[in-house]
Amino acid sequence: MATTDRVEFLRRSYLINIKSGEWLDPAQNVDLFANSRCIGRSATIKVRTRDNHERYAVVIIGGSHESYARQSCQPIVVDIMYLANILPWVLLPLAVIADATTGQSHRRTCVVKAGGSESVDDTPAILNAFRRCGKEGRIVFQNTTYHVNSVMNTSGLHNCDIDLYGTLLWGTNISYWLSNSLDVGYQNQSTAWVIGGKNIRFNGHGYGTLNGNGQVWYDFVKSVSNYPRRPHALTVARASNSVFQGLRFLQSQMWTLSVIHSDHILFDSIYVNSTTTNGNSARNSHITFNNWTVVNGDDSISTKANSTDILITNSVFYRGLGIAIGSIGQYKDVFETIERVRAENITYYGTLHSLYFKTWTGEQVNYPPNGGGGGLGYASDISASNLHAYNLRGGPFTISQCTTFPRAPSNCTSSKFQIRDLRIEDVTGSSTTDVVASFQCSAVKPCTEIQIQNVNLQLANGTMADEYLCGNVEGTRGFNCTGKACEKPSATGGC
């Protein structure tokens, strides 16, 4: 690759310094990237662009850019997908990340010793390790079970490696958790563990597990939605330039993972198996969910208020509701947005939807988490492509602007929150319904600029799904509305 070509390629990319977690903008470091074939400890990666061209680029995995020096090194070639035309800010060499999370040998390392019994709360030992090694250090959980019987707040980390080789098992004292779970800062939600800071590298190596002992919670709440003070398993809050990978979440207490006030975060190779949990992101930017496996009964991944530049790729979802945009518009007269969300190369097995929207009505009834309404704002620039769905239980693409407090009367066309610029393409598989899309939009703020093309979903009788139901939709491309969407309250994007 010629130097000029390499510089032009790098101008359109951001590279992550795996060792420090720093994100470098090559457009501001042209000389650095153009003049060195091997800078510090680096790796050459091969990427394939969306237009099927191969390119090469250098990814730094050691040192700081102030002290890069020319020296020999062995290039590492890995295949990844570079979404050059979707999110030019991200170039993530996942295989290289996995080899670079252990840190330098001279850094302080804290190995957490387990108490060895469920009667022993390992939380003090865990928090002590984070206090000692949470900045410029490494924390190691051994291949054993740690009993977590108390809340954990591990904020303010910096350049910290966390290696989880065992299992964190949360206690079942429900009264304790309801009284002590930590505030998330959104929808009156709470959590069992807050983690935050800069340049965090949390690696479960494919088997490190967070087990929420969720069955006791499922039995206790008896299907009550958003039970007050019921904790999320893990909340990533006020974090930046960080990588979470190779983690397993089992039987989470409520939502598995919530992300809030964070930016430039990669969640890679995450496995979730819970009865009623999901991943949620709120007030975040530049968040990547790659290679997720989710088995659950709720939203697979949900983007909440003020989430921007969200990328969901190469993931498989089983049984749940699919990818959710919202719910949003819950806070009266508060302006919120969801922008630039991309879902690509996603496979669904038996989910209700592929991608669906849910906003609250225009009238406030009661207060969050289960009540609300009357919010302002918009969801814009949302796209989904290369989707593979098998035995969908409902329409793959739906909009419901009729979320409201349970059993409250509702006006399903009153929402002041607008949905616009939605693009869906290249969808294959099978469905149990002939409805491709059901868009129940607000009469106050109609949905605009919706494009759907290349959808091929087969029914059991061999025919193809071909119904598009619309209400208050303006400006369609690639499809024609064939009927009217129902106007009834819904928490799952349909009637």
Structure explained in plain terms:
With 495 residues, the protein is mainly β. It has three domains: 3-98, no CATH class; 101-296, Single-stranded right-handed beta-helix, Pectin lyase-like (Pectate Lyase C-like); 297-495, Single-stranded right-handed beta-helix, Pectin lyase-like (Pectate Lyase C-like, 3 Solenoid). 9% of the residues lie in helices and 48% in strands. It has six helices and 32 strands. The chain has a 24-stranded parallel beta sheet that branches. A hairpin with a 5-residue loop joins β3 and β4 (54-60). The protein is globular, with a radius of gyration of 23 Å. 49% of the residues are buried.
Helix and strand topology:
Elements: H1 3-11, E1 15-16, E2 23-24, H2 30-34, E3 42-48, E4 54-60, E5 79-81, H3 94-98, E6 108-112, H4 123-133, E7 137-141, E8 145-148, E9 152-164, E10 167-170, H5 174-180, E11 182-183, E12 190-191, E13 193-211, H6 215-221, E14 231-232, E15 234-250, E16 257-260, E17 263-273, E18 279-282, E19 285-295, E20 299-303, E21 307-318, E22 322-328, E23 335-349, E24 355-360, E25 376-392, E26 397-403, E27 416-431, E28 435-440, E29 447-458, E30 467-471, E31 473-477, E32 483-484
Parallel strand pairs: 3-5, 6-7, 7-9, 8-10, 9-13, 10-13, 12-14, 13-15, 15-16, 15-17, 16-18, 17-19, 18-20, 19-21, 20-22, 21-23, 22-24, 23-25, 24-26, 25-27, 26-28, 27-29, 28-30, 29-31, 30-32
Antiparallel strand pairs: 1-2, 3-4, 11-12
